[in-house]
Amino acid sequence: MTEVKKIAVIAGDGIGPEVVAEAEKVLRRTEEVFGYRFKTEHTLFGGIAIDQKGTPLPEETLAVCKSADAVLLGAVGGPKWDNNPKELRPETGLLGIRKALGLFSNLRPAVVFDCLKDASTLKPEVLEGTDLIVVRELTGGIYFGDKFRRDGIQGQEAVDTCVYNVAEVERIVRQAFEIAQKRRKKLASVDKANVLETSRLWREVVNRVAPEYPDVELEHVLVDNCAMQLLRRPSSFDVIVTENMFGDILSDEAAMLTGSIGMLASASLGEGSFGLYEPVHGSAPDIAGQGLANPIATILSTALMLRMTFGYADAADAIEAAVAEVLDAGHRTSDIAVDKSKAISTTEMGNLIVAAI
Length: 357
Ligand code: ATP
Ligand code: MG
Known about the structure:
single chain, about 350 residues, alpha/beta, 13 helices, globular, binds adenosine-5'-triphosphate, binds magnesium ion, IsoCit/isopropylmalate_DH_CS
């Protein structure tokens, strides 16, 4: 009998519930077609949890996530909570959940769908065949180092410190090598080893573990050069691994290759197979509740979950192929439509993808 996989579902705020509903339909469809079995459990997180439970990350939510094999998250936040004190902000909940679940890497695939090449600002011939994934370290580096002000010789100074230890670098680098092994076997390690000590350590660790992955072709790329090459030869990248701040910047740059934020999936991973999967976009309060949201980012995040946490490559392939098929047939939500008057709704898009699986 097929094992039942448990998925904690966090619909969240804004368009979160709308896009998650479509992803759940897709999950049900993969049960029918492939015989897999998923038990979903909805739990409160973010703004809605602040309103109903007085905290963005209630204990019971964390317990549901910890007892699950994976988490599917819509989006959290919105103007209603933006001016709350720190502990009552949805974003505080996001940092808390990553930490509590030990999620130290963030993966963002950037795939250019042939039929959407025109939606990008780059030339179609440059984009052709682009299918890359950015693996960003999520819990170290300058974002988490000591920050302070002090009086300097010429007045006030500000200091941010960037710290990485060998273990932190090694675990994410190994993860990236393993991801590359399952793809086109190319890894670009991005650093600034010509000036930064943390980058020199990063490069040492990469070079030390690389011989254990002899089938993966490794290149070291300086971050400024990588920013340029992403626009010049995006299709030559397979897996890019980098530290927190470089990854933050490069993953947004890579995202823009594909045209719309409504198309981009992400995964946050720790040790083992557990992962949290969510669209790259936010809660989009400006379009919430109107059926305008593109559910594809969340549906592709679900495909990523099936592939990476559960190893259900057949179902993941089928979902990705269904998305491509529906787009090829010309169906568009308004964010990716050239002629907005012909745009379809969130549920119409979801139903078409379900039917194509
Ligand atoms: P956050 O801080 O949570 O990232 P944000 O306001 O910075 O939120 P988004 O919520 O992602 O960013 O919204 C940015 C813009 O993209 C908005 O105009 C929004 O309507 C649009 N957008 C975001 N997601 C989608 C989607 N799935 N479909 C269509 N449009 C979207
Ligand atoms: Mg934002």
